[in-house]
Amino acid sequence: MLGRFLDKFCNGLRILLGVMMGALAIPVAMQVVSRYTGLIPTFLWTEELATFLFVWIVMIGSIVAVWDGTHFDVRITRDAIGPLIRLLQDGIVNVAIMIFGALFLFYGIEYAEFGGNQRSVMMRANLIITHISVPVAGAFWLVLSAYRLSENVSQFLNRENNQT
Question: Which member of 69, 82, 128, 130 has the greatest number of CB atoms within 10 A?
């Protein structure tokens, strides 16, 4: 049941990523048109908006990638043949993601507080808008990789019980 909820949540994040990518195209297009044609005036706020959107796209994309198992996972050994070795390979990756998630969450809170004391130059927006993405992403990395680890252990134990 939790797995279905997390899957639906990540599907929602995928939709949000699509919307944000479309939204990112608008200020970037405005920057390009204003720089190379002179048809519209140069708006400096478009660069800040593009930066805000890009930071969130990267962080939300990393959350989805952790759920899909496509982020932070580089195989330096060939895929394991045995279930125990496969569990160890996946477990090491998930534990590493959990450690980085905990670090991003812990230190990201202070980073977000630092951003909360600043404002952007052109839009005068509070920079917590982008800084809060670090602990949010860390929290989700931690939760999703912990779920994946428990899922891997459960599959291993079920396989072992079925063989005996």
Answer: 130
**What CA–CA distance (Å, rounded) separates 56 from 129?**
9
pLDDT in tens, 97-145: 999 999 999 999 999 999 999 999 888 999 999 999 999 999 999 999 9
8 Å CB contact between 118 and 126 = yes
Beta bridge partners of 119: 126
Which two tokens mark 152? 């891997």
The mean pLDDT value for 58-85 works out to: 82
For residue 148 the two structure tokens come to 């994946």
What pairs with residue 126 in β-bridges? 119
134 CB contacts (<8 Å, ≥6 apart)?
A: 59, 104, 107, 108, 111, 112
Task: In whole angstroms, give the CA distance from residue 152 to residue 88.
Answer: 9
Helix/strand/coil for 22:
helix
pTM of the model: 0.88
Burial of 134 (0-12, 13-18, 19+ CB in 10 A): buried
Tokens read off for 63: 């959350």
CB half-sphere exposure, 3, CA atoms < 13 A: 8
